[in-house]
Amino acid sequence: MRAARVRATSPDGTPYGVPHHPAPSSAIEVHDDIPKPQVSQPDELLIQVKASTVIRDNLEWNELYPPNHALLGNDFAGIIVDRHQSVDEYNVGDHVYGMSHGNRGGMWAEYAVVTTEEAVHKPDHLSWEEAAALPLSAMTADQALFVHGGLELARSHPKSILITGASGGVGVYLVQFAVAAGHHVVAATSSRQRNEALLRSIGAHEVVEYTDFSTLHPFDLIVDVVGSQVLRDCWGVIKPDGTLISVDSTSWGFVDEHRRSDISVGKEGVRALFFIVEPSRQSMERISRHVLSGKIKGLVSKTVSLDDVRAAYESAHSRGIGQGKIVITP
């Protein structure tokens, strides 16, 4: 089987994947002789991968590195070619999409094993590329708002919500999902000139730059996708009983750090947390309903072959990809 994987060690023999020693993009290699995976557990499906995506910081996920090599790629869209005999909700030939768990990749390959919790049926009108571009980003947004943020459909009392990094890969779904649920959404971006038209087109009620925070009224819920100083500034515009969530990958310890540095003084009642998205059929089914209603679709910046994954990863890691995901077709 043809697949991409990451060398286990650096040229001097130091293992990759240990804390503070991720593999460089030069360690990504494409091989033609990787063993084809097989289903072995009651909830498993074998899929022919039709498309996957590049995740900007994937090489920094230490949990992906087994003793010999790391397999990258978590988003997927593909065709079921085998299933465990106990699986009855899927058939061979079904078209599915979703995201594998963060502790195992493997979607940069011709075939991969996924679980029934990780896959849902793909809407027919989505291309393979559009379908693969959705799961990780859209599920992060869905879980931030409706699982960890406790958001519900607004009826008589819409909430005020601030989204930072609103024009990015996760931010655009945060904006769309919160607006679709009936809440008032303020989209924060580094440049109104560059991003306001996009953010207005997907439903944002207001668009601000990060330098405008001092003019804002406090919010019931803030979801941060930027981290660093922008996340620190969010404490100044969250209600004393509000919820502050960060999904920025570098912000995992922000709650303790900010409490120690007194940034959050006077905001002891704020519910603050960081989380990492997990596969969820329930989340993916909600996303599919949005897709079928025409409210969202996967955004693709470009499509490349498996031979070009190294350059594609470097492009994504430098944030030089424009709007949408880089999609890999094995």
Automatic annotation (TrEMBL):
SUPFAM superfamilies: GroES-like, NAD(P)-binding Rossmann-fold domains. Residues 23-328 form the Enoyl reductase (ER) domain. It comes from the Eukaryota. Residues 1-24 are annotated as: Disordered. SMART domains: PKS_ER. It comes from Aspergillus candidus. This is Alcohol dehydrogenase. One of its GO terms (molecular function) is oxidoreductase activity. CDD domains: MDR_like_2.
